[in-house]
Amino acid sequence: MLEDIKLTEKELNYMKVNRDNLGTESYIYKVDERTVYKIFRTQSPEVLENKFQKINALHQKNIDFMVNPLATLSCGDNFVGYQMILLENLEWYQFPLHTKSLEVLKRYLLQLEENNIIYGDIWAANLFFMNRKLLLGDSDNIQIDGYRMDILPSVLSDFYHNGKFRIDVHAFMHNLFVLEEVEKISCSSRSGIEDLKNKEPVFFREGGKKLVKDMSTIHTNPSIMKNRYLIDYLK
């Protein structure tokens, strides 16, 4: 289990009010020049328990390319968040696109599958570089050892039922990210995905162009994306 840092209610409220950033799920409070506290906005016992279990499961697996929690945070007897490294000025979009990084991301996703982890929220805001090494952030919003993702990207909601995905999440989400980064084609909705049949990618070989067309049919043929990565067809 991770070390637990105990906060008073006064300290917790101060950090929420004087936060350095506000995310969809959390307040971010800068502790020092190296670490921050990620304090969850939800007070749902079910969601917090799910996050607590996931964070500790990830800690046990010790995956070196994830932004791993350093300690849990609690107030009274309640889990409220975790401590992590400061990632300021290390975001993906602050660095020139290098296709090797997309290949590294694919390799990471395959390694996560070997560890029973689904990392579904693949987009630039969750990717970082530290000392030239690609890191995956948003570590609490993963699916691991049966503990579900808390917030699904909208493009995945049609494929999720009773804690299981009907598609190859990693291949699908990686392909969407590659399309956005390389071709500047953004697909954030079902209609956008279905419209891929009308797109003509210019940076991919014929097999990649066919894959893009096939992606447009994923709602009627969920298995079509299995182990098919667009990055493999880059010119």
Short descriptors:
235 residues, alpha+beta, six-stranded mixed sheet, two-stranded antiparallel sheet, 6 helices, 31% helix
Describe this structure in words.
With 235 residues, this protein is an alpha+beta fold. It is built from six helices and twelve strands. It has helices at residues 9-17, 45-61, 99-114, 169-183, 190-194, 206-215, and strands spanning 4-7, 21-22, 26-30, 35-40, 71-75, 78-85, 117-118, 127-130, 133-136, 143-144, 160-161, 164-165. It has a six-stranded mixed beta sheet with strand order 1-5-6-4-3-2. A two-stranded antiparallel ribbon has the order 7-10. Strand 8 (127-130) and strand 9 form a beta hairpin. 32% of the residues are buried.
Brief rundown of the structure:
With about 240 residues, the protein is of the alpha+beta class. It has helices spanning about 10-15, 45-60, 100-115, 170-185, 190-195, 205-215; strands at about 5, 20, 25-30, 35-40, 70-75, 80-85, 115-120, 125-130, 135, 145, 160, 165.
